[in-house]
Automatic annotation (TrEMBL):
Pfam families: Acetyltransf_3 (PF13302). InterPro entries: Acyl_CoA_acyltransferase, GNAT_dom. Gene3D superfamilies: 3.40.630.30. Residues 1-140 form the N-acetyltransferase domain. GO terms for molecular function: acyltransferase activity, transferring groups other than amino-acyl groups. This is N-acetyltransferase domain-containing protein.
Amino acid sequence: MMRRGSDTAWLREASLDFDRFVDDRVGVRQRWGVPTELLWFASAEYYIGSVVIRHQLTEDEGGGHIGYHVVYPWQRQGHATQMLRSALGKCTALGIARALLTVAPDNQASLTVVRRNGGVADGINHEGELRFWVDTSASA
Ligand SMILES: CC(C)(COP(=O)(O)OP(=O)(O)OC[C@H]1O[C@@H](n2cnc3c(N)ncnc32)[C@H](O)[C@@H]1OP(=O)(O)O)[C@@H](O)C(=O)NCCC(=O)NCCS
């Protein structure tokens, strides 16, 4: 999870050889033992944030299908809401009819993002996160 003041060591790796940094991340990659894809969002030269889509749920369903962050200067401008909407559209194309989202109960911003995208509550997972299902066809 990325928060204000979080680790930025990855920026150094990216700046040393950006082409390689991108090559290592582009396309469908195994992460957490399942096929995943990273989407980066930018406005001109500014990095806004990213979304990870798990094409399959992990065995314990931790993290659900979709995770996201928006970097601090771009928060509270509706970006995450739109980014999740785009990711849900991509899920439809991947054949994921219902996407699972998991959110820490104290993460008000993310709870708003998920609810604005039609998230329907479904209990709590083993990490104490709230689970939500989203009908991805509603975002198409
Ligand atoms: C959660 C996160 C992605 C939201 O990004 P964002 O681009 O600010 O989201 P949006 O602008 O679409 O905001 C959704 C709503 O939550 C509100 N919100 C944003 N930050 C908030 C905060 N810290 N506390 C309460 N509400 C907040 C926004 O104001 C907005 O409501 P509004 O339109 O009525 O103002 C961002 O805060 C973040 O990257 N957090 C760290 C990583 C993270 O928690 N990822 C999600 C894991 S499930």
